[in-house]
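User: I'm putting together a teaching handout on how multi-component assemblies are represented. Below are the sequence lines for each component of a complex, exactly as they appear in our records. Could you produce the 3D structure of the whole assembly as structure tokens, so the students can see both representations side by side? Please keep the chain order the same as the input.
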Amino acid sequence: MKKVLALILSLALLIAVAACGGGKETSSPAPSAGTSSPSEPSKGIAKEDLKIGFIHISDPSDKGYTFNHDLGTWKMVEALGLSEDQIINKYNVGEDEGCAAAIDELIEAGCQIIFATSFGHGSYMQEAAAAHPEIEFCHATGSGAASSGLPNFHNYFTAIYEARFLGGIAAGLKLKELGETKLGYVAAYPYAEVISGYTAFYLGAKSVLPEVTMDVIYTNSWHDPVLEAQAAQTLIDGGCKVISQHSDSTAPATTAQSNGVFQVGYNADMIDAAPNASIISARSDWSVYLIYAVTQLMNGEPIATDWCAGLSEGAVYMSPLNEAIAAPGTKEAIEKAKQDIIDGKLHVFAGPLTGSGVNFSGETETITIPEGEWFEESKKQSAPYWFYIIDGINVLG
Amino acid sequence: MNILNFFIASVLSACPLLFGTLGETLTERSGNLNLGVEGMMFMGGIAGLAGSYYYETLSENPVVWVSVVIAIVCSFLCAAFGALIYSVLTITFRANQNVTGLALTIFGTGFGNFFGELLSNSAGGYAAVGNATKVAFNAPISATLASSSVVGKLLFSYNFLVYIALALALFLTYFINHTRTGLNLWAVGERHAAADAAGINVTRYKYLATCIGGGITGLGGMYIVMNSASGVGGVWVHNCISGYGWLSVALVIFAMWHPSRAIFASFVFGALSVARFYFPVSFLPDAIYEVVPYIATIVVLISVSMRSRRRLQPPASLGLAYFREER
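Assistant: Of course. Below is the structure of the complete assembly, with chains in the same order as your input.
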């Protein structure tokens, strides 16, 4: 009898877990065998027939990348006048076979367009795109669309490096005010996306403080708050007075605050979490792309194979400046640089620059950009391909 | 200077592990193998943050020390509640300890993230405690002594929780080895039936050791939520405990079920977790640093079982349910 009771209690515990943890399926019930005839993309799709699927690596509770992308989704829904049940989100989909299963479920639910947000989802998206030519597949941060030659497989990314450059200006001005020269950067992985981001941040600081240097530490994780804090603490111990990050959590911001140094954030406005440290954050507005891609689909127009937009299209922007702690003149300097980038007068990766890095085939490559020339980031493909570590940046580990 | 910073960072990283290890050691001394440490850390973490956060939002003039005490009490009670669920299932209903512990981990993780998200959403962004509370959880216990000399810095530049953890480790060492109650607890973990025959209330000992032990592990979770050098600094961050509970379970073995050894063991693990930042070796992959603690645990297990010293063995009844009727 007691055993039975124990069994029932354990079951109750498990059910409670299932209820608390929150499953993968969310928000909108997927109609089984709903939209019967997948309409030809070339002829366009009526607004009310649209079904849009999303594959997310985590869920919006990360308050970081997925949270930010999800904001874009709901902004798109509002802008296009869709209803919520036309969106099917798959959260916490890993970069493994689970991704293929999630794509299949979205296809079965009748989605005409599917977005995947993480780099490792790419191969599954490509496979599905080859098998389902009638459905559009859009993959963020990836680089396989052009080489795959599939007309229904697309890559997209924002020119976040432009916003990072502006964040760098805020950091550089703060250093200048403090009379210091050392920046720190908590980076996720030694990938081009991350390197491009921190190089842009560094160059932004350098544009206002030529003698600046920067230490970089990789956590080898997109989201490991404790590790991010430990890395930030190490940078601060090493003398960095302003830090920034390519990682999800607010941990570097709070670590900066408790050490009395400053921080420039990413993906989210972090001022609430660390009011005395967080100066400003670089953010992406994914709705710009989502609105574009879905509108093209509705009109029966082709979607670009590689899409990248930045400050001028509003796809990247800066969160509100924390004026209480920012150096005087920061707002004006950012405003001016922003206008110059939009007008094409200012280029982020502008010479003179020298650096070297490991390219996509694993070989070491060097680059020298002379004065007056610049490197075109995100033009050949949407995903960043600046992988050079330039002079002044010191990778600690 | 680098070595000094490394030492301090190691101690700060070791502290949540020490809480987890001490709590789990106390639990396992009663013969209960509670694998729900990770879950209880999540429960302790969110309860501590929520307690502080609500006190500060609801009270007109929040007092820092009250906020700190509320965080400690809430996290202890909430994690102890998690351990109580485990106790009822395994002690009273004699469910399988491994399965129950794993279920508690899953439950606690969901509990923490669910209420954490609820709290964040109700705060409209990030649920963060006030700056004064953040300082209280991070400030050196004596800033003047810490900045006076190298020795002062080595001894006094930690937050108060580090000293509490150390005191707790010393107290538990004394408790288990030198008090009647502690020796009784030891006996319960070794052989339930013999302890029962000697007139020790086995059920009561098991319940108390497991619940108090669970509460102590919860303080480790609160440390991760509140500390900023080796934690997320007083803000709820999704999945912030990220494996520290499991490390604690391994550490109990590494420390051979002795609270005093837990100090050293958790320091080693803490040091290894930050070593690659302070002493990067370019040709060593980062993964090496991450597996070293586990390899060390395996080596300790093997060497101890080969030497078979009786004081350095797991409690003999670890993982077994006690049926009085089956004596």
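A couple of points students might notice: The domain at 42-159+286-312 of chain A is CATH 3.40.50.2300 (Rossmann fold). Chain A touches chain B through 52 residues (CB under 8 Å).
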